[in-house]
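Query structure, 172 tokens:
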């Protein structure tokens, strides 16, 4: 028997930035799609500027909540003060917000009267579905999968976007 004491060590963080980036990209694309799909069935006058602002605010709040939840869940494993680790964790969720920017831009374009809000929602849902394919493809390639396998993963991720599009069509 060995006299060495086995101590649990924290997981390696080598791949964490890429993992957080990919996670935030998928999460932000799905969240922005769901928020945009929920916009089209309103009663009353359309206000795409207000809608764009609320998609952005909701994504920022989701990113902050996700980062804060991680900080709280891991507070015993980190020697840093909870406030410091919470702020750091919230700031690492920036990819979620960035992934929502195409949706915000499409809605803002509608606010500028470049196109209608329904068209902006359709464009946002399409862009986000293509982005989901890209996130899946990228993550599979980063994991060392072949191109055909990576394309299959991308297609499965794109199904999330297609699910939101189908739900949007069926509910309106």
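Result returned for the query:
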């Amino acid at each position: 028997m060995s006299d060495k004491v086995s101590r649990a060590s924290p997981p390696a963080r080598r791949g964490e930035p890429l993992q957080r980036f990919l996670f935030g990209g998928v999460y932000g694309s799905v969240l922005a799609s769901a928020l945009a799909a929920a916009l089209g069935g309103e009663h009353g006058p359309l206000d795409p500027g207000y809608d764009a602002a609320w998609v952005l605010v909701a994504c920022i709040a989701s990113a902050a909540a996700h980062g804060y939840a991680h900080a709280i869940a891991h507070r015993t494993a980190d020697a840093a003060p909870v406030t410091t680790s919470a702020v750091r964790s919230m700031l690492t969720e920036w990819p979620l917000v960035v992934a929502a920017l195409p949706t915000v831009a499409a809605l803002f374009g509608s606010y500028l009267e470049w196109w209608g809000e329904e068209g902006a929602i359709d464009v946002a849902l399409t862009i986000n579905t293509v982005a989901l394919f890209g996130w899946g493809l990228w993550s599979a390639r980063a994991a060392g999968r072949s191109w055909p396998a990576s394309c299959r993963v991308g297609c499965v991720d794109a199904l999330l976007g297609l699910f939101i599009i189908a739900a949007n069509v069926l509910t309106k």
